[in-house]
Input
Amino acid sequence: MPRPDPVKLSGGCQCGAVRFALDGQPYWVAHCHCSLCRKQTSAPYATWIALPADAVTITKGEPKIWEDEPDRQRGFCPECGTQLLGKTPKYAGEVHVLVGALDDPNAVTPQVHSFFADALDWVHPGDGLRRFATTSKEGPPLD
Amino acid sequence: MQWTDRRPDGMGALGAPRWTVKAGPTSTARLTAGGAGRKLAGMTDNEITGGCLCRAVRYRAPGEPLWVAHCHCESCRRSSGAPFVTWAGFPKDAVSWQGEPPRRFASSPGITRSFCPTCGTPLTYEGARWPDELHLLVATFDDPEAVTPARHVYWREHLEWIEPGDALPRHEGSALED
Output
């Protein structure tokens, strides 16, 4: 999967209490259909942009962190609940940012559907992107 | 400061102190103390259960929602962090709550959303245009496949790279408008 072009983007939560800036070259942009991402965002699937950790800066406020396992963290605004960030030891050195929290989500382009084996049965993307049972690193596309 | 420098201020699953809930119980959605197993009048065994990621907040709702729709509006997107969300509408007094009260947030005039104060999972929407309804996010259901979305609303605000492959109607605004 080709690495996306460098980005310089801003984003934040719905109430404006937490803001962040992205400045660097993403590793990937992907839709994730796994049950944890669905539950975190309360959406049929989530869309993430993965960046080197030092490319993500909190410019205002403080995300609240929730961990389901040691060091597997998800960050959200404690005032309005907007989900913002994730990081996990599986992707050490990366921070993942939810594209729906960007000021301009159209500025990035998703590349694949990940964890499509977990997709809800009424989710039928018509975008032509490749679908992987888990991730593109862990097996061939499903179709 | 980079986000990875931050440490969690607690881990509910590991017995950290309870979180402070700044907002009181919802006044419109009924919160039942110790409500597990309690049945509301008119409710059948066919019910929907759900809650947040960390399970601090749980709810029960009738098995047949009034409607189910995908919403592509900017506000829903921003509140979730996802490209779009999927809602199910219920009679307001037919949803009961257990566990920690959701925290409420006025996302725009006449609109209140709620989320889990511990893990942040978005949960509900209440709008002045739907005074008798409570809307629950379908992805918070224990079984999101128990219902089937019937339409896309606020399609005029959809992201350029969202292209559903389904044949559902696409409403420019709400289904009330067109």
Q: What stands out?
A: Residues 7 and 58 of chain A are 16 Å apart (CA to CA). Helices of chain A lie at 35-41.
